Structure formats: C-alpha cells, structure tokens
Amino acid sequence: MIRALALLLILAAPAQAALTQAELDRVAAAPPPGARVDLGTARPTVAVFVDFDCGALCDAILAQTGETLMQSGLTPGRDFGIAAIGIDPRDTRQAAETMVAAQLPEELRAVTRILMPGADRLAEITNALGYGFVHDAENDRFAHPAARYVLTAGGEVTRVLPAFRADPGDLRLALVEAGQGQAGSFADRLALLCYGFDAESGRYSLAITRILTMLSLGFALLLGGAIAALLIRERRRGWR
C-alpha cells in the first residue's frame, strides 16, 4: 500500500486542510487482490489520477511520469501507453488537454488517453483500483495519493509505484512485467527473475531467495543433464 509515500494534494499553501483524520485515512492507493479495470488502452499502461485544474502538484506528477518514461528506454505506443484519469468531474476537456500538452512531450501525448469519467464511472474505477481520495471543499482541493498504477493490456494491476520516487529502471521493469513477455529485452525478463518488488518502498531490488532459487534450478538442470548424458552413453555401450 502506498500511504507513507503518498503526497496529499490538498493545499495551495498556506491554506489549511479542512479534513478530518477519518477522511484522510481514506487516502491511499491499495488495489485489492486481482484488481482490474478496462481503461481502453489495449497495451501495458501507466495510469495516473489527476485534477486537471490543479496547479499545485498534479502537473508535476504528470511531468515527472513523462520524464521517467522517456528515461526508461521503452518505446511509447509499442511498449506502453498512458492513462490520465481526471478525479474532478467539473474539469473541462480543454483544461485536461492543456495540462497534458504542457507536461508531456509529443511522443507521449500521442499515446496518452485522457479519461474524464462522470461521478459513477469514476467511483467504479477508483473502487476497482483501491484508490481513495477526498475533496476538501473549504479549499477546493483534493487529497489523493501521488501514485502510478501499472496495468497489463487486459487492465490487470501489476504494480503501484510512487509518483516522485520511481526510478526509470523500476518503471521499466514494472512495464516489462506488465507486458507479459511482449515488452523490453531478454535481459529485462531475466532481471525480473532475480529482482523482487518491495511494495512499501515501491522499488525493485535483488531478492536473495530468488537468486538462490535460480542457482538451485540451474544446478539441478546441469545435474539432470549430466545424468541423462551418462545414461544415454551407457545404453549405447549396451547396444554394441
């Protein structure tokens, strides 16, 4: 769950949030097991939730996502798409397109799907993804996690990464994982066998258990191959 790493986008400083602790407790990015939602992208997707009228940090989240994707080495359109999901039904299409145009380079704008769901559809999406946010009516701001969801082409959530601490390498591995063998290189897929994902930090790191498993499997295959070779040799001698 990304809670400790979440940024609460509720303020245009120095205003004070008019939210209770109970309301703030609802702010989290915690997808339930098997979380899935159809965003209409039909490819591995990085999804971010955005208040398109927010000039505080939402634009920075979008810009940082774009920069990290450009540094990942993956190809927009072939390896991934982007879904920018509006959380304020009052936002206009023009405001959304203006923010996307200002924060994403042309290569990424071409593969970005802007979603501006009504209240019912928004509730459906956020409930499916375990994305909790709250409107601070007094300051007209939203408290919501600064998180990126990584989904497969079929809409299954594979990873949730923090928006401001995701390394390009982590995002690349997450998309390779979501691509289910269709994105990235063989080296990337090999790396995933030895790297484990830490949900608390939102990072991939070498997992000693996976490494030991791989070494054990490799040894077992070598041993099995050697035994098979010996058996074949003995059989051939018996035929002579």
Could you explain the architecture of this structure?
The protein has eight helices and eleven strands. It has 240 residues and is α+β, with helices and mostly antiparallel strands.
SSE layout and pairings?
Blueprint (H helix, E strand, L loop, with lengths): L20 H4 L3 E2 L15 E6 L7 H14 L9 E6 L6 H11 L2 H4 L2 E4 L3 H11 L1 E2 L1 E3 L4 E3 L3 E5 L5 E6 L5 H11 L7 H9 E4 L4 E4 L1 H32 L1
Parallel strand pairs: 2-3, 3-4
Antiparallel strand pairs: 1-5, 2-8, 6-7, 8-9, 10-11
In short:
The protein contains eight helices and eleven strands. The longest helix has 32 residues.
**N/C terminus separation:** 66 Å
Strand content is: 15-25%
Largest sheet descriptor: 5 strands, mixed
Task: Classify the secondary structure makeup into a structural class.
Answer: alpha+beta
Uncertain stretches of 5 or more adjacent residues:
1-16, 208-215
With strands numbered from the N-terminus, the spatial order across the biggest sheet is: 4-3-2-8-9
**Order of helical and strand elements:** HEEHEHHEHEEEEEHHEEH
Average pLDDT level:
78
Helix content: 40-55%
Tally the beta strands.
11
Spatial extent as radius of gyration: 22 Å
Q: What descriptive keywords fit this protein?
A:
240 residues, alpha+beta, five-stranded mixed beta sheet, two-stranded antiparallel sheet, 8 helices, 11 strands
